[in-house]
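Progress report, Aim 2. The chain analyzed during this reporting quarter is listed below.
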Amino acid sequence: MAVSPFKFLQEVRSETAKVTWPTRRETTITTIMVFVMVAVASVFFFAADQIIRVLITFLLGIH
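Predicted C-alpha cells for the chain:
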C-alpha cells in the first residue's frame, strides 16, 4: 500500500509533536554520567591490563 508523500509528511509532523525532548539539565547530567562511566571503565581496564601483564611476565619468566 503506497502512501502519498504529503500524507507521509503529515504523519511525521504529527509523530514529531508527540516527542518529549530532554531538558538542558537532564542532558547535562546524562553527559556527565557518560564521562564518569568512561573514566571508571578506563581505570578498570588499565588496572586489569597491568595485572594481566604482571602475571604473564611472571609465568613466562620474562624480566
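The chain has two helices and no strands. Residues 22-62 form one domain. These observations will guide the mutagenesis work planned for the next reporting period.
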